[in-house]
Design goal:
heterodimer, A: alpha+beta, Immunoglobulin-like, 14-stranded mixed beta sheet, five-stranded antiparallel beta sheet, 12 helices, rod-shaped, B: alpha/beta, Rossmann fold, Arc Repressor Mutant, subunit A, 2 domains, four-stranded antiparallel beta sheet, 12 strands
């Protein structure tokens, strides 16, 4: 089965992709922040709009509404004078009116007041738009009239030609009637006339400026008159009179801004309230627009908001909006809308204005939230940039780190691989690379190094075997061959029984060699098969010393330690075997008659058993190799082969018991101290 | 009395010939085989009275065990002597519980091998006939019949191998405990390591404990040997 190979770098990259969640988190955070800021702005706007509304409470005079709250036709169809931003040239052209002419209203058959034939279809209709700027009210009338009949000087009566009538409540409370008439295209003349609209009350023309321009099938009349002429409340009516027969000159039709049913009355004229605007002037800002509307939704004051072209209450006469409906119903409300021109998001807050318990109007506060959104955009791009930079940095760092690690691992692998040649022979017993490194790879390198060292010693042991064996085996073999030779010759007086005995001894020696080799080779397996049990080490050593002394009377063995109660876990006979090896070793080196001490003591976790003998010291370089095996350094003693396996086996037994064996040179006298250290166990 | 047939399965021709000739000189009929296949082929026709098996037969590491298993299936009373070259194979012999009669570690002196063969035939005869009464030793609950190699503990008969019997016998004999040297001599084998003795003692204790869980008469005498303490 082929396993997919994942390099370290690849894995690191994979894990580092988790970092991609950071920009997303940042984005979420910024979104939340935006929501929070918008909420804050809404709150602020709500408070501001409430404050404005509170100022305007209980001041009905600023709205100059008629007393009754009925939605009569006149209130609903009031004329509205749009504020005009640029100065107006009275020339009969609408070019300087800006966008205001788009708001013109059409008055046609439904507004017909009179026709000569008595039918409804009038021969004339008109569009009207009113504006106000400074101290004047401006008007722009576009009359559709196929047949123009201008005034003829012959007639004194003013109703013998096409003309436009104005009626208004004067400041003195009386109705004033004004006729605008001309003898041809150009400047018109205005006269105040009697109630029959025929003759001027005085011969003087009024200071009403007006220009009449001919178009195909129609004519335009642009005019203005002082706002001061209007009384309180402001009322204004306008009608267009059509004369088609240039000879007889009878009035063909009259179309008015007020239909016939209300013809006795005048339209309300709504003009923005300078008082209101003055009061709220201090509140206006370029990024916020305050807008006051009356209860019919007509805009009565507008302030600020130059920064945006919001069309909620600019350039309009009334607002029909859900928001306004809510505010007019006495509820405060906030909504978001989009500026159709700039695409900016706007927040609109509304609050009703009361007079007593009646709703007089509404204050609207419209504010551009673009600044918040700009802030959000900026922050977002900054966060995105910063995150990207950090991500790049981290990924690069991880990649470099991964590559570095991979390089080190490969280098280590190469060196470790080179330490053993193709035949499995150890070339180097230790590694150089990363030996001093404090990280895991350093540990690995040191681990491999230690492993190689141990392996090298073991290989060394294996390589020594044939040499040592050759030396040890040759002796008995030599004896046997000599004996056999003598037996065949049977010369001399030598007893054949003695020869056979010598041959047998040599054979026995060979057997001993083979046995100890077998023992060393299989010690690990044998140890594993023996089930561990708890035994008293003090009793064991004490008895061992006593019994050994009994077995070999010449030796001088001494036990120093507690009589009983030191428990260890493992195999008692194996420990006895270990003691055999250590004791034999000590006996071989100790001078005759000197004492060999067996010292047992324990601390909290460990038991220490030292076997001390006097005798030659062990050279320092040999101490390391003592447990390797085939490392015999004892003086040649008679009879027994010395393969140096004893301490090797003893060490294996110690390690198997979870402890270790240590050989040190004594400090007090020349001699050696072999210490077994095994874990202490509580009695079973 | 019928001439006993002894089968030898040994892959080393020199050793095989040596043993075969020596046994023939002792008056036994000897069949010798160099591998498992040939031995089993011959055993199909007739079983030997005793088999001497080498454990490692050429490339077959456990060839001797296989033959032993076959013999046990055919007749559990055929005595088997394993010849081993490795001390640690003793555990395998016991572990497999093939009912092996005994084993000898190589090199085996012919003298010892012959003694083993004689005692095994004696045990076999005892099983076949009524047990004869030899020298009877009684130590507390222990009864030892050296002539028929019979052992009883508290009235229960124990099945011991000849080596185990010899070890037990020397333990019972030595009042102050038997040293490793005594025990090694008792096995009548060549060089015997202390560990081999230890292994035998472990198995001996186990056989006693099988019939008496509280058995604790064989004590270890550290640095010396073992001691039979129930006197």
């Amino acid at each position: 089965m082929k396993r997919r190979r994942w390099s370290l770098g690849g894995r690191l990259l994979l894990f580092s992709s988790v970092l991609l969640a950071i920009p997303w988190l940042g984005y979420r955070y910024i979104e939340e922040m935006k929501e929070f800021l918008l909420k804050g702005q809404e709150e602020a706007q709500s408070l501001a709009v409430r404050a404005v509304a509170t100022v305007l409470h209980d001041r009905p005079e600023w709205f100059d509404l008629s007393g009754s709250m009925d939605n009569n036709w006149l209130e609903q169809n009031a004329l509205y004078a749009y504020p005009i931003k640029s100065s107006i040239q009275i020339d009969g052209y609408a070019t300087d009116w800006g966008k205001v002419p788009e708001r013109r209203k059409r008055f046609g058959p439904e507004s017909t007041v009179y026709t000569r034939t008595g039918g409804l279809a009038a021969s004339v209709s008109f569009n009207l738009v009113l504006g106000e700027r400074g101290e004047f009210i401006y008007g722009l009338v576009n009359v559709t009239d196929s047949q123009r009949v201008y005034r003829h000087p012959r007639y004194r009566s003013l109703d013998r030609s096409d003309h436009v009538r104005l009626s208004l409540f004067g400041a003195d409370g009386e109705i004033r009637r004004i006729v605008m008439v001309t003898e041809g295209p150009g400047t018109v003349s205005a006269y105040e006339v009697e109630p029959n609209w025929r003759y001027p009350t005085t011969g003087r023309a009024l200071p009403v400026r007006g220009e009449w321009q001919e178009r195909t099938g129609s004519y335009d009349l642009e005019f203005r008159f002082p706002t001061a002429w209007l009384g309180y409340p402001k009322r204004l009516g306008l009608s267009v009179v059509d004369v088609d027969d240039p000879d007889e000159r009878p009035i063909e039709a009259v179309v008015a801004t007020v239909p016939k049913a209300w013809s006795e009355d005048l339209n309300r004229l709504i003009v923005r309230s300078p008082e209101l605007e003055r009061i709220i002037q201090g509140l206006g800002r370029s990024d916020a627009r305050i807008c006051v509307v009356d209860r019919y939704g007509r805009v009565r004051a507008v302030l600020g908001g130059q920064d945006f072209a919001g069309d909620l209450c600019a350039d309009t006469d009334r607002i029909s909006h859900d928001l306004l409906q809510d505010a007019l119903a006495g509820r405060q409300n906030v909504l978001h809308r989009r500026d159709v021109h700039s695409g900016d998001d706007l927040i609109v807050a509304a609050h009703p204005i009361y007079a007593g318990d009646q709703v007089m109007g509404t204050v609207l506060l419209e504010k551009n939230s673009a600044r918040i959104l700009d802030l959000q955009r900026d922050t977002l791009s900054q966060v995105a940039l910063a995150t990207f930079a950090v991500l790049m940095l981290v990924v690069t760092g991880l990649l470099l780190f991964g590559t570095w690690l991979a390089f080190r691992i490969r280098r280590l692998r190469r060196e470790a691989g080179a330490a053993i040649d193709t035949n499995g022979r150890i070339v180097k017993g230790s590694l150089q690379i990363d030996q001093a490194a404090g990280d895991d790879l350093g540990d690995l390198s040191r681990g491999i190094s230690g492993l190689l060292g141990r392996l090298q010693r073991y290989t060394g042991f294996l390589e020594t075997v044939p040499r040592t064996l050759r030396h040890e085996i040759l002796n008995p073999v030599n004896t046997i061959s000599m004996t056999l030779q003598k037996l065949t010759q049977q010369t001399g007086g030598e007893d054949s029984a003695a020869l056979v005995k010598s041959a047998q001894q040599a054979t026995r020696q060979l057997e001993l060699i083979v046995n100890s080799l077998t023992e060393a080779a299989h010690i690990e397996d044998a140890l594993k098969q023996e089930p561990p049990e708890v035994f008293d080490l003090a009793v064991l050593v004490r008895e061992y010393v006593t019994n050994s002394a009994q077995l070999s009377p010449g030796s001088n063995l001494v036990y120093n330690g507690p009589p009983a109660g030191v428990h260890a876990r493992g195999s008692d006979v194996r420990i006895a075997q270990l003691l055999d090896k250590v004791k034999d070793n000590a006996l071989d080196f100790a001078p005759n008659g000197s004492r060999i001490h067996f010292i047992l003591n324990q601390n909290r976790d460990w038991v220490n058993l030292s076997v001390r003998n006097e005798g030659p010291r062990v050279p320092e370089h040999v101490l390391q190799a003592l447990f390797v095996g085939m490392a015999s350094h004892r003086p040649n003693t008679e009879g027994r082969p010395h393969l140096g396996i004893g301490l090797f086996i003893a060490n294996r037994i110690a390690v198997h018991h979870g402890g270790r064996l240590r050989v040190t040179n004594r400090r007090d006298v020349s001699g050696v101290d072999v210490t077994l250290r095994v874990p202490l166990t509580t009695a079973a | 009395m019928r001439v006993k047939t002894i089968a030898i399965v040994e892959d080393d021709p020199q050793q095989r010939a040596h043993y075969a000739q020596a046994l023939r000189e002792q008056g036994y009929r000897v069949q010798d085989f160099e591998n498992r296949e040939r031995a089993l082929h011959a055993f199909e026709r007739a079983l030997p009275d005793l088999a001497i098996l080498d454990i490692i037969l050429g490339q077959e590491i456990g060839g001797g065990f296989e033959i032993c298993r076959y013999l046990q299936d055919r007749d559990p009373h055929v005595p088997v002597i394993f010849l081993t070259s490795r001390g640690n194979e003793i555990d395998k012999i016991y572990g497999l519980q093939l009912g092996a009669w005994d084993y000898q570690t190589k090199p085996v002196t012919f003298e010892y091998l012959l003694a083993r063969i004689v005692s095994l035939f004696r045990i076999q005869d005892r099983r076949n006939r009524h047990p004869g009464r030899g020298e009877l030793r009684t130590l507390g609950k222990l009864e030892l019949d050296t002539a028929s190699m019979r052992v009883c503990w508290d009235g229960h008969a124990l099945e011991l191998t000849p080596t185990e019997f010899d070890l037990l016998n020397i333990l019972a004999e030595r009042v102050n405990g038997a040293s490793y040297d005594d025990l090694a001599d008792a096995t009548k084998q060549g060089v015997v390591e202390n560990n081999t003795i230890n292994t035998h003692i472990v198995h001996l204790r186990k056989k006693f404990k099988d019939v008496d869980p509280h058995f604790d008469c064989i004590r270890t005498k550290y640095g010396y040997g073992y001691h039979w303490v129930c006197r």
